[in-house]
Fold each of these.
Amino acid sequence: MRVGITVYPSYGGSGIVGSELGKELARRGHTVHFISSALPTRLTELNESIHFHEVEMMSYPLFEHQPYTLALATKMVEVAEAERLDLLHVHYAIPHSVSAILAREVLRAERRLPVITTLHGTDITLVGADRSYLPITRYCLEESDGVTAISEYLKRATIETFGFDRIEVIPNFVCGEEYRRRPFPELRAQLAPRGEHLLVHVSNFRPVKRPADCVEILARVLLQKLAVRLVMVGDGPERARVEHRARSLGVAEACTFVGKQPRIVDYLSVADLLLLPSEHESFGLAALEAMACEVPVIASRTGGVPEVVVEGETGLLSDVGDVEKMSADAVALLRDPERRQQMGRRARQRALERYSTDLIIPRYIAFYEKVLTGGGA
Ligand code: GMT
């Protein structure tokens, strides 16, 4: 198949999932054309099966805001024609579905170009449900030839908000070969020079991730006289506030902000626990990647997280914002290495049993085939 994939290139899990999906499709003999404003973050290599088409934006003084949605639709039309695409698969509804549906309509007289929309989270729970975007998001859902969601929770949320239920749940996935625990003594020594325990947080530091809760947890764990350090991986709008909070709590010395990193797996490989205290999370890809690296997860019981992290088995869950409970959970696991390691092993087992690429990518391919033969979700 020749598949056009559109993602947000630099921000968030939907871009990661779309990029990884493209790479996995290419590995299985399909040709993938990424159509996006910039090269997606995890797309490090282009070859005869993976191509990238940059959306070009014309600026004109009359345009107060450049009409990206239209420029994207134009590029989709061009690429679909030139590369004879079989379908467009867009990740995150706003505005990618709008562009894809427009492109499909432009080409309607010449060729069929089915549009598949994958819902990831805030496209439904925040952005799509906002009054200003609600009707257009509903239109995109109804007009897509197929719609997938990354968790049962997100499917339920979409039904509740939009009354739309033609949705196939295809969860996020992880490659167990790439995401596995490897000894990494140099990095461990660099991050924990005195052999401290390592708490790791990975996110794009948006308010919805509540990254400041991580330093609150660190402060409480340190009060229990445990030798521990916190590694904050990623960057985003909340970072300065979190750094400030770490200084106010007097824990800045025990905290390292490493910024955006190309190899998240290295940091997960040296982690003892992952902290995911999000306000909201429709899946929690960071939790899945940590689990594949045998890292138990301390997370909020929110959205789709309980589908991924099994309470008491692969991690421990708390109410959103309950940093007292999260720190108590972290202390309990750090003091009990046997339980922690057992949980880590169980976490990897669950990650591979339910979410490995070998299970999930064929489901996307089957869904494409179903849509191509005229039977979307
Ligand atoms: O909703 C967002 O935060 C945007 C979206 C993204 O593009 O990063 O994140 C969502 O998609 C990820 C990949 O499918 C999921 O793992 C995240 O849980 C989800 N984020 C939220 O629901 C907040």
Amino acid sequence: MKTQIILLAALASLPLFANDNAMVNSPDGKLEVSLGIRHGRPYYSVTYDGLKAINNSLLGLTTNEQDLTRDLSIKTTETTNIDERYTLDRSKTSEVHYVANRLLATLATPQGQELQVEFRVSNNDVAFRYLLPKQGETGSVRVTSEATSFSFPDGTTTFLTSQSDPMIGWKRTKPSYEELYCWDAPMSQGSQYGHGYTFPCLFHERGVFDNKADELWVMISETGLDSRYCATHISDAHANPLNGGGIFQSSYLNTYTIAYPMPEENNGIGTTDAAIALPGSTPWRTITVGRTMKPIVETTVPWDNVKPVFKTNRQYKMGRGTWSWILWQDESINYDDLCKYVDLAKAMGYEYALVDNWWDTNLGKECDGTAKDPNKSIEKLIEYAHSKGVDVFLWYSSSGYWNDIEQGPINRMANSVIRKREMKWLESVGVKGIKVDFFGGDKQETIRLYEEILSDADDHGLMVIFHGCTLPRGWERMYPNYVGSEAVLASENIVFDQAQCDLEAKYATLHPVLRNAVGCMEFGGSFQNKYMNRDNKPRENRHVNTRPCTSTFSLATAILYQNPIQNFALAPNNLEDAPEVSMQFMRDVPTTWDEVRYIDGYPGRYLIMARRHGDTWYVAAINAEPQKLVISLDLSVLNATSFTLYSGGDTPTAKPMKLKAGKTLLNLAPNDGIVIVAK
Ligand code: CA
């Protein structure tokens, strides 16, 4: 009798019903997601290699019709296996084999209202989303908030970038994912603006497990976003109501909750809610976990669970471009200077020249509306480019009524009637793509505009680059004419600001393992100018922003940064003043890749990665530390027979290397890099 009572007491601390728990493992068994219910509240946790990467964290969402965060129990669970192969033609990997285990749990309230949560678990990635079935007569709901959270072991440090205040910055264009990062910061450090952080988010769990030597890297992000939802971000850290494994509230700031857009975004127009038709689903939230950053750099989770939104019968050609605006700025948007950049593209063998803002005024009409010299019009420039075998991208503002941008063309992408007319003209003059800048934020209203621009552009054979924009979320696979997004504090800041020149190497050790790990990144880098001005020369008695990074460093970033069309920050003067070794490298460098390999690194300190194009491997390494770095590489793993080493800082050489048995040791000076091309 006594024994039975003890047994009952032990049972009372366990879930009341066996079906209040469910679990799903990765195919290799290392990554495990547990789903549970406590006091009617659904939660999950993630374990990797026996280490709790994500502690018990709440699930659930609230709509205008239902509170689906509490009073829930698990009604049914279903597990299936996924084994799928697909190709990507503009990302880090070309052939993907996605193998995962799937858990679909149907949760229900006592009144019978249902919420489904679906987990897909591959060896290093968890993707999960909610599905809302149709219930009764209700055919649509507004999702107003989520309980979805991510709770980390106390002591975890963070690499996060803050969500900006809305309607601030240049012409009131923020937020646009162009903020600084914190480096290895404690979770208790608040975000810069108090609105939390934008995806992707990187967490370092070191010294937080029983065995202090254990460490995990965890990245969380979002994917599969189209016009049917808003983009989300995460809150500042708060206490976890589930306190890891216990039931008492924790006072530690260790938990981040999914946050919806801010009301003031997009000039206050559009809801912060997501409106979905039923049955409907949220985008996928993703968690990538590894003992090093390797699974994060190499992850394909942004694309594994998304499908093309539309198909195309167009052929889109990726490649390289020149971009006059980055160094020569607004003053370069005139016929003669733009011809120089077309000539540069030809000299480099590049496919494209990007014409930035004000072309409509400066190459079309005078400010008073009278026509410019027809021999210096944008059509003439496009003809000139075609005569040199170069195709053209044209810039547009997305606005609209959501910022104060006056850089033209404005008001042509925001309205479907004008947009379609404009795109018809673009196609008729042989333009191959557009760069659309200055979007209004993360509301569903704005995500719909992204999709409409992509869809209309495809009708006219136009590729699309976004700037001043949100993070792409699976778009490389979802939209056949999508090329890339800025959504990063990009190369323009190196031109604008000495502090950013000084931080170029530091950020170059982070972006490839974080921002660029989840999507194409239109950074516009690989400067060969030392001085951020038109003649690439210092001035007496006046400061000119000056890059401490070397010529060879810039070659390394051409490999580290991935965008299928890279608009490199080269200038016509570089044909004369940059090392010929560097310029030849920049002529030959590919921008589409078959494979990526993370080798070693630490954000803010150094990075070594390799990318493969066809049968050629490019190993790139950079050093952001103030002292010399010695790196050790095992080149035999590349299975190559010929190796060329690009090194030497600002006076680079390309020298054949002999493959030695064991490790190859190489020195990197501060702000310097190397590239090894192996065939
Ligand atoms: Ca920008």
